[in-house]
Every structure is written in structure tokens, then in C-alpha cells.
Amino acid sequence: MSSALPDDPQPRDADQSRPLRARRSRGVGIVLIFVYAILAIGATSRAIYQMVTVYSQAPIPITLSAISGAIYILATLALFLPGRVWYRVAWVTISFELLGVLVVGTLSLISPAVAGTGTVSDGAVWSNYGIGYGYIPVVLPVLGMLWLRSRRGQFSKTTSVEATSAEPSTAEPSSAGS
Which residues of the chain are under the pLDDT cut of 70? Predict the structure, then answer.
């Protein structure tokens, strides 16, 4: 008896033995997802706390921290969930994350007043390239992109569910003019 039923909505990898989610969530992939989840929780909870307590003192870095928290949440979901759409969402969010870290990190060095980085605790998650988070915010998107690039073959091919639903009909067209 086959483990993959024809009506199984879960996309399968090439050998049909396990769902794509299981394959994406192994090894380095699970570590990336775990680190993104930790950053999502950290950045979001920090932003919420600061919005409630000291938002008027540093609105720009707190807003940037909230944006980074939202990006980390979306990236975590995109890395975890199966399918080509989520793969593309992962690329977009991780690319935006890298751009944000580079722009905010550079701004915080060039003009600390604009980025609100009087002290490390006042800065955004991405201030000074993520110094308050051990530079993980600048390294993680690069690692994420390398990992996604190494997995692109999984998502450029049609999954078994998509292939079965996209197969042309086997019925021959009728010949009306005969």
C-alpha cells in the first residue's frame, strides 16, 4: 500500500516518501527556523513593551523594532510552511530583512540621532547591524539566503499534488466534422 494517497493535500518531495515540510525542517533548516522564531519573539515583545512604556522617547527605533519583529514572524512562517508560494515569501522577507539591517545599521553609524541610538538599549533591533543581538540580525539573512538557494530545486519542480491536478485530460477530442 502506498503512503501517498492521490487526494493527499500535503505536497511530497521527489521520492514521495515524506511531506516537503519534513524535508525543509531538518538540519540547518530547523536551526534557521528556530533562530528566526527566537528573534521574532524577542523583537516583537521588545517593541510592544517599549511602545507601551517609552514610545514617546524614541519612536523611530521602537517602530523599526516592531517592523523587524513583523519581518521575523513572517520569515519564520515562510521558512516553516511548505510550497512554492511560501518559498517566495521567504526570499522576499529575508531580502527585506537584509536590506533593513544594512540601511538601519549604516544610518545608526552615520547619524545616531536619526536612528535613535544614543545607547544600545535605545536602538532598534537592526541598529549598529544588530549589535544588541550579537550581530545575528546581519548574519542570519545571509545564512537564510544561502540555505534557500541550496533548496531552490525543491521548489522549481512541480509537486506531486500540483502535477496530478495539472495533468491534461486523457479523453480524446471528438471529431465533429467526420
Answer: 1-26, 113-122, 155-178
pLDDT in tens, 103-135: 999 988 888 766 655 554 567 889 889 988 899
Q: Which one, of 142, 33, 134, lies nearest residue 98 by Cα?
A: 142
> For position 22, what pLDDT does the model report?
43
Q: What pLDDT score was predicted for residue 152?
A: 80
Of 45, 120, 34, 112, give the one whose Cα is nearest residue 80: 34
The ranges assigned to domains in the chain are 20-155
Three-point CA angle 32, 35, 41, nearest 5°: 140
Contact 64, 125 (CB under 8 A): yes
- Dump strand ranges (E) for the chain: none
Cell of 108: 545608526
Q: Which of 164, 157, 136, 146 is nearest to 84 (CA)?
A: 157
Q: How many other C-beta atoms lie within 10 A of the C-beta of residue 14? A: 12
Distance, CA of 46 to CA of 132 (rounded, Å): 12
Q: Which three cell numbers stand for residue 172?
A: 480524446
Could you tell me how far CA 73 lies from the centroid of its own chain? 8
Say what the pLDDT of residue 28 is: 85
